[in-house]
Amino acid sequence: MRTHESFKPALPALLAALILSGCALGPSGDAPKVPQPEHYAVEATPPSIGPDGARQQFVLGQRAVPQWWQAYGSPDLSAWVDEALRHNHSLAQAERSLAGAKEQLRGQIDESLWPKVDAVGQATRQRALGLPTMGPPTNLYNVFAGEITASYTFDLFGVERYANSALAAQVDAQSYQFDAARRTLAANVVITAINAASLRAQVAHTERLVALADADADEMQRRAATGAVAADDVLAAKANAQSLRAGLPGMKSQWQAMRHALAVLMGRTPDNAPADLDIAALRLPESVPLSVPSDLLRQRPDILAADAALKVAAAQEALATAEMFPSLSINASFGQSGFTWPKATGAAGAVWGLGASITQPIFHGGALRARRKAAQEAYLASEDNYRQTVLNAFQNVADSLVALTQDADALQAAAAARGHSEQSWRNAQRRTALGAVPPSFARAGERQYLNARLGEIRATATRLADTATLFQAMGVSIDTPAEPKKDVR
Questions:
Q1: Is the dihedral of CA 441, 443, 449, 451 positive or negative?
Q2: What is the C-alpha separation between 199 and 204, in angstroms, rounded?
Q3: pTM, whole model, 2 decimals?
Q4: Span 369-385, pLDDT tens digits
Q5: Residues 3-29: pLDDT tens digits?
Q6: Helix, strand or coil for residue 15?
Q7: Cα 70 from chain centroid?
Q8: What is the per-residue DSSP string for 268-321?
Q9: What's the rounded Cα separation, in Å, for the pair 95 and 99?
Q10: Are 189 and 152 in contact (CB under 8 A)?
């Protein structure tokens, strides 16, 4: 039963109906329906992409394996991810916060289920003014007292129940956020390791390009000494070598930054960064599970967290409504009290009390009504947040699929260019060895090959990294397949 209509307090018939029917005071908190695409991207995803030897298949409807990074076929990479999941301090902080939130929930539930019982002991010495017409002007005396007090508030309209439900849903949301943090960490380790390996290979090939450019400049210098070429040709060759050399420091800086970032992700100091992977040794995952949109709603941590936030808002709206109804409390106390220790501990010093109180809010300056209205708006905002989170998730998967499809085409073209340029270079080497062409002809062929190889390395790294992004976008829990958490209400 929804209660977004204006609330009319102090209606005995309504109170009785609510008590007898057990009707909820707020919305159910169920996720709203959202439109689901027939396929993620504008164009339908092909069943497979890439040429033979570098082909990937999208398996629609299959859930991703929990430890997806093992599909890259690198024991070192798998070990690095496992180390990061064990030793990353940001992840450990999130885990501690989650454990603390669970303890707070346990404490709040226990406190709401059982009466509060406290022991109070008191020993004081007081000086008080006497009556002006009787006795001494001041009284000096001791007070000894000890009591056991107990109190309990009946949860007639679900104030405690809805408060517990809200906190439980908050813990669920935090749990899903922790799952998302673990998945993001795993993906970051994989992507950072791939980028570091790619930059290492790019640095090595660029250094060879610089060496070739220096050889060309030296040859131009020798030919200029004999008058075979002009001085401007020498300057152009030297400028080309220095231009290539100028790009190396920035590339090396990026490479080392990637290594440092990988070490920190693994919980290490930057100087203990692991050795780089060989980009050519990484295996492209051949099969990539692709969940259908309806399954994605039940396994992406960000969607599940938005669903939990919706349940938090629903419970808080019900709580704000329940606070407008009466509350019933009972309290009791038993103890000993007296002005001297013997009297305080004797039979004459026994004291006790028993009482009950009922409170019905009548006028709070509109605060209760305003809080309820604010809770209603917060719930509607949570519904919108859920819808937007789902759409963002669909977009994330669609972008990853399109990027991976284009990566396959780019890598195929880059590999073909590298193959052609390599064959041309080998031909030039043979002709140079026979004396048919000068050595500069072979160096030119090698330069063309190295530049093509650099393009292939970048395209390979991009496809490997985008595959990791798609695995992450599927949202399956790392340890076990994600299951919807139950609402504790």
A1: negative
A2: 9
A3: 0.84
A4: 999 999 999 999 999 99
A5: 443 444 444 544 454 444 445 788 988
A6: helix
A7: 21
A8: --GGGPPPPP-GGGPPPPSEEEE--HHHHTTT-HHHHHHHHHHHHHHHHHHHHH
A9: 6
A10: no
